[in-house]
Design goal:
- Strand 2 and strand 3 form a beta hairpin.
- The mean pLDDT is about 95.
- By secondary structure, the protein is mainly β.
- It has a five-stranded antiparallel sheet with strand order 4-3-2-1-5, with no helix packed on it.
- It is built from no helices and five strands.
- The chain has one domain.
- This is DUF3553 domain-containing protein.
- InterPro entries: DUF3553.
Length: about 60
Amino acid sequence: MNEILEPGMMVRHPGAPEWGIGQVQSRIGDRITVNFTNAGKQVVDGRHINLELVTMDPY
């Protein structure tokens, strides 16, 4: 799933729901940098964590 992530996409970390929703800043190989609402900028190892894509409902 991580291979489809692009900057600007919104995600959640399944192991750290308290971090809130995050916006992907970059993805270089398996290193994904995400700016989370409650945890700030975090670098996630995509080999061990599959981030969950968040779809924003316009209604």
